[in-house]
């Protein structure tokens, strides 16, 4: 069979993937004779395109699913996409704006038609890109979180939790995203350190010329102040108790209240209270029965309630009110300040606004209990386990989950309002009408009297259900799929969504299935650049994922991503890793070409070839044991490195070099067949990591049957191995490497045969590999000795000494002269260092690190002198 000189991943990968798809190797169905191994993909947003985080996460999932498939398990990797309410609606609104259409111009149904059209055109891009990576998902099972079946599950769950008393509607302080114009959860607020200012403003006391100075970072909210608060223990402000103050500009009279909440050390120790725009102010307002004045519109501009600067954005209003306060002579001073500010996770440039709003909530107090207990007792195992503490801390301090979003793209909340305060929660308007008639006692109510809530539920309120809804576990709770595949085997995800998604899926599992959703959770780290910055478009440090696949091949990129991605630790991405992955592909291909081009003859295998076979067989089984240990602990990077070394070092650098026939000579059939068998075994263990080149080589080793593909071949099981032969080989290879180093450092050509003398009590262990050592080091003899034979270069391995006579191999006198010159120079250098260190003044006055550097130079020079003197002694 002719093989191309160079492996071309672009030609191979699409062809191989199409074959896998055509043969149906990715598809899974319940099989009672097999153990299920199930993974639910963390559904990427339909707005998304493949980025480095996706590459890492999905490569890991594919490695696990491919290994499980080869182990004979019923491997089922369920793909899907998330409808991503905020991100998708923003995309569609932007697209409409380009056409001169605003959302306000459309009805809800008209807008949703545009949104579905956008989703149908662009929503599958990322799944197609995952195919380029080699993802072996069961594409027949692809879900979309807004498809009818999954949407119905969301609505049914809402109704179910409402009836149970776990969902309620309340007017509470929320996190508001003025760009998306929707509420977001606490977990969607990203706090960043920013440079800001602290404004000191004088508030006049009512009926007096006195004033009190207040410090604030948000002077625009002065317009919504309804109180000033002092700490009752603050001696400075005892005279203010019971008095009132006047709010600047609006001239509103407000009370001065007392509360120990006030920090005596911050600002002036006096706090302005704006209950509508700060969570802590809101709590004070509730406690002291204060008026609430909301001065902001949903888009972050000032409302009519502000009275001044109406329609200005928050930032512009801040500048305007600062100028006005200064003009009035009541801006006492402005100080620079660095503090944390909350930004929207979905709109990273948008400062989140605390806002009082009527929203729907999930009461979390009961729902978290089994979820906390079953992670802490390892019923659900976290890898790395350190994330258990993070998880526990969040659940111990959990707040109720605001689930309503002021959007149209998503599952519309199944709440129907009627009359003044009536509300009926039901899956359909018809069922809601029955409830409304019953609750109100008014049989004359009609569907037209009911108005459905305009909001949709939080996207995470649908994605927390996918381990169940993905298998139709709500509409058909006893179906074959849910009984067989649930709970799933492992979840692979970034630690950054441990609260958004992981914890909530666990809540849902115990709440709706009375069972965990998955056995194990493997947390990947974040992909960062070499400066430890998170990959992002704005920083320009995120490479084009598909461009990397084009350049290095999918196998090369997969290896590059996993070479340094230990569980839970961030991956510092360097494109050189992908180059290393591509070089690994090239190494494997060239080794295969080398073997396939050998001429084969029927003759007995040589003793060295038989020994090489026995050694590599043992080493292979040793690595299989290592692999199982690494995989059981999700040390996938370590497992890859074990395979990498087995192929690159043990197989290519040692085994093939041992058995390789002399130029133009044939190889015996037994050794050839053994080597091809080793190739098959190696392709099996590398397949989960490098699926394309391994399958291509598997198909080219010999003509295969129609269904005989590597992807569904049997994963090898470790057999007992001879540790002694592995140890002997390691010593022998170290011996060969030392001899090669001596040749290189002394300019001795490999064509020149050398004699080797060994002063060791373990000569028999080396003797077993004597023929191999002689071939790979080009020795004319290898014998045991009692003393240095003289005029030799030497080295040691542990306590064993080895000598290579060099008379006639190198110019001994020239070598001696060079060594002597280097020795004299080093002695002179050491003398200079000693003088410096013997100078008490220098040692006493020089910085500690400078003295340490000089001592290191001293130690290095002494060590080098010792080595040079030993070399001179050897040469006689």
Describe this structure in words.
With 876 residues, this protein is an alpha/beta fold. Among the domains are: 182-354, Isoleucyl-tRNA Synthetase, domain 2; 415-452, no CATH class; 546-721, Orthogonal Bundle (Isoleucyl-tRNA Synthetase, Domain 1), CATH 1.10.730.10; 725-805, hypothetical protein PF0899 fold, CATH 3.30.2320; 812-875. It contains 27 helices and 31 strands. The strands form 10 sheets. Strands 7, 8, 9, 10, 11, 12 and 13 form a 7-stranded mixed β-sheet that branches. It has a 4-stranded antiparallel β-sheet with strand order 6-5-14-16. A 4-stranded mixed β-sheet has the order 29-28-31-30. It is globular and about 110 Å long. The two termini are 57 Å apart.
What gross morphology would you assign? globular
- Average pLDDT over all residues: 92
Q: What is the highest CATH level, the class of the domain at 546-721?
A: Mainly Alpha
**CATH H-level superfamily title of the domain at 546-721:** Isoleucyl-tRNA Synthetase, Domain 1
Give me the Rg, rounded. 37 Å
Q: Main sheet, how many strands, which sense, barrel?
A: 7 strands, mixed
Distance between the termini: 57 Å
Q: Please indicate the percent range of residues in DSSP E strands (runs of 2 or more).
A: 15-25%
Q: Assign the CATH topology of the domain at 546-721.
A: Isoleucyl-tRNA Synthetase, Domain 1
Let me know the number of strands.
Answer: 31
How many helices does DSSP assign?
27
CATH-level-2 architecture of the domain at 546-721 = Orthogonal Bundle
Helix/strand structural class: alpha/beta
| Helix fraction by DSSP (H/I, runs of at least 4) | 40-55%
Stretches where pLDDT falls below 50 for ≥5 residues? Answer: none
């Amino acid at each position: 069979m002719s093989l191309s000189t160079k492996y071309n991943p672009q030609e191979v990968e699409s062809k191989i993937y199409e074959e896998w798809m055509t043969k149906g190797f990715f598809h899974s169905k319940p099989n009672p004779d097999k153990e299920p191994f199930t993974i639910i993909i963390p559904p990427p947003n339909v707005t998304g395109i493949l980025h480095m985080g996706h590459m890492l996460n999905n490569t890991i999932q594919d490695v696990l699913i491919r290994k499980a498939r080869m182990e004979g398990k019923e491997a089922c990797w369920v793909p899907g996409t998330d409808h991503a309410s905020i991100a998708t609606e923003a995309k569609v609104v932007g697209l409409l704006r380009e056409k001169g259409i605003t959302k306000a111009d459309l009805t809800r149904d008209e807008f949703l038609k545009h949104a579905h059209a956008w989703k149908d055109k662009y929503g599958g891009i990322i799944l197609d890109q995952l195919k380029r990576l080699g993802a072996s998902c069961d594409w027949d099972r692809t879900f979309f979180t807004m498809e009818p079946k999954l949407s119905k599950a969301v609505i049914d769950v809402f109704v179910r939790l409402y009836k149970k008393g776990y969902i309620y509607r309340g007017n509470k302080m929320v996190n508001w995203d003025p760009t998306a114009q929707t509420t977001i959860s606490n977990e969607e607020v990203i706090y960043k350190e920013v440079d800001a200012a602290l404004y000191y403003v004088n508030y006049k006391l009512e009926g007096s010329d006195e004033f009190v100075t207040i410090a604030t970072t948000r002077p625009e909210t002065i317009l919504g102040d309804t109180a000033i608060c002092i700490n009752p223990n603050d001696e400075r402000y005892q005279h203010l108790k019971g008095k009132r103050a006047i709010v600047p500009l609006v001239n509103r009279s407000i009370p001065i209240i007392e509360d120990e909440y006030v920090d005596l050390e911050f600002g002036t120790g006096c706090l302005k209270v704006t209950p509508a725009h700060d969570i802590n102010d809101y709590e004070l307002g509730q406690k002291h029965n204060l008026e609430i004045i909301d001065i902001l519109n949903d888009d972050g501009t000032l409302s009519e309630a502000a009275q001044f600067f109406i329609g200005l954005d928050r930032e512009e209003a801040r500048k305007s009110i600062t100028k006005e306060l200064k003009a009035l002579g009541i801006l006492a001073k402005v100080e620079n300040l660095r503090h944390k500010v909350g930004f929207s996770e979905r709109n990273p440039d948008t400062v989140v606004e605390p806002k009082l709003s009527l929203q729907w909530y999930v009461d979390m107090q009961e729902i978290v209990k089994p979820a906390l207990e079953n992670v802490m007792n390892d019923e659900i195992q976290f890898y790395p386990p350190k994330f258990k503490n993070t998880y526990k801390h969040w659940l111990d301090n959990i707040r109720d989950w605001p689930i309503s979003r002021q959007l149209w793209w998503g599952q519309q909340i199944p709440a129907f309002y009627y009359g003044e305060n009536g509300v009926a929660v039901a899956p359909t308007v018809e069922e809601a009408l029955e409830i409304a008639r019953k609750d109100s006692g008014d049989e004359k109510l009609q569907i037209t009297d009911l108005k459905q809530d305009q909001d949709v539920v939080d996207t995470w309120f649908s994605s927390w259900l996918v381990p169940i809804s993905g298998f139709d576990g709500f509409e058909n709770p006893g179906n074959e799929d849910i009984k067989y595949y649930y709970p799933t085997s492992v979840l692979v995800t970034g630690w950054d969504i441990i609260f958004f998604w992981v914890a909530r899926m666990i809540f849902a599992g115990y709440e709706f299935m009375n069972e965990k959703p998955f056995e194990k959770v493997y947390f990947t780290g974040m992909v960062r650049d070499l400066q430890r910055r998170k990959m992002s478009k704005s920083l320009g440090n995120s490479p084009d994922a598909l461009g990397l696949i084009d350049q290095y091949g999918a196998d090369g990129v997969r290896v590059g991503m996993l070479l340094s991605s230990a569980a839970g630790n961030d991956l510092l991405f360097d494109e050189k890793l992908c180059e290393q992955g591509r070089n690994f592909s090239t190494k494997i291909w060239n080794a295969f070409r080398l073997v396939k081009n050998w001429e084969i003859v029927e003759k007995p295998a040589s003793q060295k070839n038989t020994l090489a076979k026995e050694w590599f067989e043992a080493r292979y089984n040793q690595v299989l044991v290592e692999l199982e240990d690494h995989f059981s602990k999700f040390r996938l990077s370590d497992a890859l490195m074990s395979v990498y070394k087995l192929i690159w070092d043990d197989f290519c650098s040692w085994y093939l070099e041992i058995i390789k026939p002399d130029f133009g000579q044939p190889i015996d059939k037994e050794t050839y067949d053994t080597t091809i068998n080793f190739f098959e075994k190696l392709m099996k263990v590398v397949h989960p990591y490098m699926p394309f080149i391994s399958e291509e080589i598997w198909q080219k080793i010999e003509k295969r049957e129609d269904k005989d593909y590597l992807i569904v071949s049997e994963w090898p099981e470790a057999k007992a191995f001879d540790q002694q032969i592995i140890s002997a080989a390691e010593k022998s290879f170290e011996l060969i490497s030392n001899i090669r180093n001596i040749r290189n450092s002394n300019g001795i050509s490999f064509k020149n045969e050398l004699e080797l003398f060994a002063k060791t009590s373990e000569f028999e262990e080396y003797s077993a590999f004597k023929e191999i050592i002689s071939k790979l080091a080009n020795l004319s003899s290898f014998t045991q000795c009692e003393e240095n034979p003289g005029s030799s270069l030497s080295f040691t391995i542990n306590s064993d000494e080895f000598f290579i006579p060099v008379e006639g191999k190198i110019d001994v006198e020239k070598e001696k002269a060079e060594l002597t010159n280097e020795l004299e120079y080093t002695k002179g250098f050491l003398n200079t260092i000693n003088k410096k260190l013997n100078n008490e003044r220098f040692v006493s006055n020089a910085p500690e690190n400078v003295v340490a550097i000089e001592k290191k130079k001293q130690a290095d020079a002494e060590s080098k002198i010792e080595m040079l003197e030993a070399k001179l002694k050897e040469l006689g």
